[in-house]
Amino acid sequence: MTHAHDRALPRAVRLAMPLAQDVVKEVAKLHGVCIRPVPLKRLDTYTGKWEIIDVPCGSPMDSKCPPCAQRNKQLRKAQCREGWHLEEEPTITPDEPNEEQRWLVEFRADTQAQRDEAERNGDDTTDLDTLIEGLDEEINAAGMRGNVLGRAVSKRSRSTRRRQDAPDLPKRKMAHTTLGRTFQAPDGRTYRPSLFVTLTLPSYGKVNNGVPVDPDTYDYPRAARDALHFSKLIDRFVQNLRRVAGFDVQYFATVEPQKRLAPHLHMAIRGTLPRAEIKQIAAATYHQVWWPSVDDVVFEGEHLPIWQDGAGYLDPHTGEVLPTWDEALDQLDADEDAEPLHVVRFGDQVDVKGVLAGTKDADQCIRYLSKYLTKSLGETLDGGQAQQDHVARFVDALRYEPCSPTCPNWLRYGIQPKNAKPGMAPGRCRSKAHKPEHLGYAGRRVLVSRKWSNKTLTEHKQDRRSWVLEALGRADQPIDPHRYVWRPVPAGDANVPPLAVRLLRSVRERQRWRAHMAELQARADGQDLSATEGRAA
Fold first, then answer.
1. Residue 85 CB: number of other CB atoms within 10 A?
2. Distance separating alpha carbons of residues 388 and 36, to the nearest angstrom
3. Nearest alpha-carbon partner for 376 in 255, 230, 266
4. Which pLDDT value is given to residue 143?
5. What is the SS3 assignment for 286?
6. What is the pLDDT of residue 62?
7. Residue of 299, 298, 320 lying closest to 308 (CA atoms)
8. Residue 476: what pLDDT?
9. Cα(113)–Cα(454) distance, integer angstroms
10. β-strand pairing of 211-212 with 251-257
11. What pLDDT does 1 receive?
12. Which positions ≥6 away from 95 have C-beta within 8 Å?
């Protein structure tokens, strides 16, 4: 009947009406309900009952799921706030291994011994290798970090001698602490200040409002390479910072793009150093990319390498097998006059600000650190035509730049990528570094040191859950990790209700929670008012 009524209306009027399912999603967003829930089947091993559970998608991006993105943002803000101005040393003592963990490691030891014996006898170790790989996964799933063998593959290293064009840095004796210095004020109060630091990349040409004044002379190739290797430069800065500071400096940092597209870093640092030293550290920090040269293009257009099983990629005309990644690095190592492919450094602009706990400055810095966390790097730009042209040129410069040892772009320069496989072609790398929305930066947007708040993001999430349950008057009982068995839901499963139905149910549940919390708040306010009136009487 409603459908017939709609058809009686003019088409323009009908098109102006919002779609009911779109309204459901908007209402879900307003109530903080995930709009892309993942249905999973859960078996309660105590009762033997299966049920369908909607798990939030957990997306950190507004463009995919604003409610989940905002929750992640709030968790990051809480994580930043709790670790920035700690007064006491965070205690990180590993738990004692439990019986299951000990048994897994013992079983792993027996399997390793069998594998070693089979290798000595010249027997096939494929099945044992598969078993060991599965055991290593179980070991991590059982709550143990790392690999039982440590680093299994030797790491290539170049000379660690500092570059002649990099200034030397002072080095202090390391103290076993993560806390910064305290300062005594004339009035007797003690302060433990911290830092908020912003680091940028150098200039690639004159810009006006984030757009190159002369795009033809703007150094797009260097800008692209700097963006690709920016995360390594951050690692070097942290290493140098700790050497100079003389203590285990802890940090919470976020990476954002400037208008000119270059990534830059905002970093909350626990403790303080002189501003001059921070700027000196930034000036002396660099990262050398020891990769094969990309000066000469060997294959392009229709002239591309071809794949042959058992051999790898071949020159289509000569049939010669292209050098592997390891062979190319061996050749680079053998050349005493070799130069790094690229050297990335910070720019001259270094902003250093002292911050005290509990001040407006601290709150403002935390908001600034989380300002763009729910947007991709590309989404933070204004999108004007000049900016779009700038983005297009930048992405074009990125297209054939190798982003990693496994990047298909190495074929363009006559080298097989690491772990080469059929179907690779230059300019078709699927890494997020080559996607326009990431602008060459493939690293993590949020960088948090291990001893920052003494909690993982999961533990911060658990704190929030416990607070909500307590407010609702429900006990936060620990859950037996072996009680539930989770399984994916096959596509088209008839037991999964339509998305709109699931969203409506979640909205109703959220409304019930909010009504209950509002009732509890009203009771608390009434008790406070009664107590005040009683004291006044």
1. 20
2. 30
3. 255
4. 73
5. strand
6. 87
7. 320
8. 58
9. 37
10. unpaired
11. 46
12. 143
